[in-house]
Structure formats: structure tokens, C-alpha cells
Design goal:
heterodimer; A: about 110 residues; mainly beta; 11 strands; globular; B: about 120 residues; 6-stranded mixed beta sheet
Chain lengths: ~110, ~120
């Protein structure tokens, strides 16, 4: 199975900050990497697919990059509504696996 | 408006069975693959199973093989997950999520249904 490791596990930041969340796969996943945002008590929401493509309706302050085994989600100019948990997911082969999540909270 | 609505969760004793349903509307259900993802209380997301748009291709996470059965009815715009021999560790919110056209991400999600396994 491909293991997905996110770092950091938690992060405190302020409104307006730029934050970078990292996801590392245990082997090359050829950009089959997606990012989701989840707020407490709600379903996950797709933010970015195929490593770099912004899902329709998602603000442009979210961006994704990376290749091979290493990927990042960048949020430029944090807004109050961005404080949530973020998960990466690979869909390269089965089993599909998610990272353990990065919780982003307000400093 | 696109909507996925899960139902069928609830309290169940170990060894029992449940059939979860996911009703879809607002998009061409029969053109999308579908998925089940679960989340134990306070934990992360875990992929359970996927089914192709026609239902002909099915995948399960290794730990779900044998006790979980995914199916769909494209006439009723519905997705199902049968879970047998329930265990305490199956306690979780179960989400249905659609696939996407053109990529493999899980595009649309339901609100989830809670399954609680306890004696």
C-alpha cells in the first residue's frame, strides 16, 4: 500500500498568513494527488485534484504543486473560513489512501 | 442542485448487519463512479469501496473485503453499502462521494450517516 504522510500534523496561523502544507507519498504517485478541506461536523470538500488543478468554485488563494512523491498545498492570505483540517489523497492505485490530516487553527 | 443524501446508519450490536443508502440528485448519476469513505470518531478519512458508473467494476480496501458489498441502482439513482458481521471498529461516519469526469478525485460528498456498533 502507498502511505501518505502529511506534515505538520497541526499548524497555528493568523488571518492573512501564507501557509504551506506538505504531503509525502511512500512511492511515486505520478501527480494522482488530491487535496480536501474538512470543517468539524461536515463532509470533506475537494479543493485541488491532479496535484495542481483548482476545483471549480475554490478560491484562487489555494494552490497545489509537486511531483513524484512530494506535494504541497499553499494557502496565500488565510481567511477565517480556511481554518479546518486538510487531507491529501492519492488515487494512483488501489488501495486509495488518505494522509492523516493537517489541522490548521487560529493563532 | 447536486445532492447526495446518505441514510441507513444507526446503532447496531456486534455481529449485526446494516445496509447504507445514498440517494443522488442533480447530476447524471449513471455517468459517475461512486465511492464510500468512512471516518471513525476523531480520526481521519478511510477509503472503503468504489464502483464504476455501470456497476461492472468494484474495488474494496483490503480490510473491507468479505464483509462489505457495494452496489448501485442507476434507475433509482442510488448507491448502497451492505455491511455484515459488524465490529466495534466499524463505528464511523460513512460518506458517499462521487467520482469525477476527467480525473480520479472524489468530487461531491454527502453529509454522512453514522454507524455505531456497540453491545
Amino acid at each position: 500500500d502507498i502511505q501518505m504522510t502529511q506534515s505538520p500534523s497541526s499548524l497555528s496561523a493568523s488571518v492573512g498568513d501564507r501557509v504551506i502544507l506538505t504531503c509525502r507519498a511512500s512511492r511515486n504517485i505520478n501527480n494522482y494527488l488530491n487535496w480536501y478541506q474538512q470543517k468539524p461536523g461536515t463532509a470533506p470538500k475537494l479543493l485541488i485534484y491532479a496535484a495542481t488543478t483548482l476545483q471549480s468554485g475554490v478560491p484562487s488563494r489555494f494552490s497545489g504543486s509537486g511531483s513524484g512523491t512530494d506535494y504541497t498545498l499553499t494557502i496565500s492570505g488565510l481567511q477565517p473560513e480556511d481554518f479546518a483540517t486538510y487531507y491529501c489523497q492519492h488515487t494512483y492505485i488501489t488501495p486509495i489512501t488518505f494522509g492523516q490530516g493537517t489541522r490548521l487553527d487560529i493563532k | 442542485e447536486v445532492e447526495l443524501v446518505e441514510s441507513g446508519g444507526g446503532p447496531v450490536k456486534p455481529g449485526g448487519s446494516l445496509r447504507l443508502s445514498c440517494s443522488a440528485s442533480g447530476f447524471p448519476f449513471d455517468s459517475y463512479s461512486m465511492n464510500w469513505v468512512r471516518q471513525a470518531p476523531g480520526k481521519g478519512l478511510e477509503w472503503v469501496s468504489s464502483i464504476s458508473s455501470s456497476g461492472s467494476h468494484i474495488l474494496y480496501a483490503d480490510s473491507m473485503q468479505g464483509r462489505f458489498t457495494i452496489s448501485r441502482d442507476n434507475v433509482k439513482n442510488s448507491l448502497y453499502l451492505q455491511i455484515n458481521s459488524l465490529r466495534a471498529e466499524d463505528t464511523a461516519v460513512y460518506y458517499c462521494a462521487s467520482g469525477s469526469r476527467g480525473h480520479d478525485a472524489f468530487e461531491m460528498w454527502g453529509q454522512g450517516t453514522m454507524v455505531s456498533v456497540s453491545s
